[in-house]
Amino acid sequence: MPELARDEQQNSPARASAHAAEATDGKPRSRWSSHTTFLLASIGSAIGFGNVWRFPMMAYSYGGGAFMLPYLIALFFAAIPMVVLEFALGQRLQRGHVALVAHIAPRWEGLGWATVVGTFLSAQYYQTLLAYCLVYLVNAFRDPQPWAVEEAARSLSESSSSLDGAEASSGLQPGSGEAGGETEADAALAAVRSFWREEVLQVSSGVAETGGLVGPLYALVWAVVCLGACDGASSIGALNKLLMPMPFAVLAAFFARAVTLPGAGAGIRTLFSPDFAAICEPLESLVQSGPALAFQVFPIAMGLMPLPQLWAALFFLMLLNLGISSAVSMTSPLTTALCERLGTTARRVAPPLHLLGFVSGLIYVSRAGTYWLTLSDHFVPMFLTIVVGLSQCLLVSLAYGARRLLESLPPEDQRLAPWWAFCWQWLLPATLSLLLLAQVIHEGSSPFGGFPGWALAVGWVYSLGPLLLVPLFYCAHARAHGGRRGGGVMGAVRAGLELGAVRARARTSSSAVPEVSRVALASNEMSRVAPPVDEDLFSVVVLTESERPGAAPQSEPDHAKGSNEMADG
User: Fold this and answer.
1) What is the structure's pLDDT at 114?
2) CA atoms within 13 A on the CB side of 94
3) How far apart are CA 313 and CA 296, in angstroms?
4) Which residues sit opposite 541 in a β-bridge?
5) Is the pLDDT of residue 445 over 50?
6) Which residues pair with 28 in a beta bridge?
7) Are 272 and 64 a contacting pair, CB within 8 Å?
8) Which residues are CB-neighbours of 12 under 8 A, at least 6 positions away?
9) Closest by CA position to 189, among listed 258, 283, 267, 287
10) b or e along 210-243 (b: 16 or more beta carbons within 10 Å of the residue's beta carbon)?
């Protein structure tokens, strides 16, 4: 941090980034080898299973084309500003997420830990989906495929268990290759459900009945993700160079094939024709939703194509590629945070950390795993993600300053318009607050059904538990520094308002007194809010003509010296 303060005084953002790029133990951080590598890694992190099964399900359920309106609003008012904010913070401070938050506001370091821990917990059930992809990929080459109607009927007749009410209602009779009185589509759906529930999940009767463990490929998935996280940016970049082009090629092939099938136009119109009434009243008759869409409905679509083994193998290989790149980006933040805190390398931290994630995530590959996966997938994206995103926006706005962040980016990267500062300080927090309020109201009026009360309580703890790290770290930091007053939430708000006022006065005075090079906050209130923070974080840099790159050095006027001495005091 002292190096960063000196560099800002010398007006050298490039040198500031270079110093900040060093880890806490003085070792250089892993860097992206090229802009292309970083772009591929970003795409791999952003594109995952949700783009394959969540978006089509949500679009069809909420009115087709009408769903695009709230989707685009959320995309441009929340998702894109949040991504750009995180990119800007990373480019400016060159730190992992926890170290970044601790640098801005040390007492709120727990917010950074809550973010990376919550992301790591999400990775636990995310790896389960990767294990399912491996199961389907291996079985895709069989002829006939195990989810074909004839094969499913044979395996069902040999099994002592029967399908539950949902499967039985489809009319598939054990020992026969067709559904009694039902259509061929119903028979195909019953067949693929049979393989999914009886062979892959071996699902139990309820969330309390875990039974034995299934899915032996779960450990293999964790091992692959661990290898991707061991070398930081270098291994992630190499992994995405190998994996990312393939999904786009497969999707292009699927699209070309789909638009040539009979009824393709009607299907596209059905999916994207706007039905604004359905936005408030979602369809309840959707064939399948959630992860089951990828593992039940899509295999049927693959079976309707020529060479179904080839198409099924390509599809699940594509899902595997998308999932691995996203999974590595979900476990890497916690790995990086521990490396920076312990002063060690990812090769030492990643193996035990991923082993812990594997062991603690075994509940997802038990016979009740599908119930726990559904609970986790409901609570984590709905609440934890929004809360930590909103907290990060407020932290940047109050403790660092959105405009200051925008202006402090290195010159070669400073292409962002002032509009982004407005988004980070006002638009993004307002959007996330409305989303959080809507989620709370919806959950209060229509609780997540189908689960006992104790299971829902576990879901809430799983979602909001990482947020307990925020007060724990806050109290620990306050205790370590004497528990000074003024460091609470209202103290941070007052500090942010005072900081904005000082910056406004600095911008006004800089036009009248261009020699003033630096205006620092010296109020007791600010020192009580965050006493151990570098003074640089609560200062305003006003560039003068003599301080701009390439300008000739000039002697400092007496009144400027007096201003600096007063600021330092």
Assistant:
1) 92
2) 22
3) 15
4) 518
5) yes
6) 22
7) yes
8) none
9) 287
10) beeebbebbbebbebbbebbbbbbebbbbbbbeb
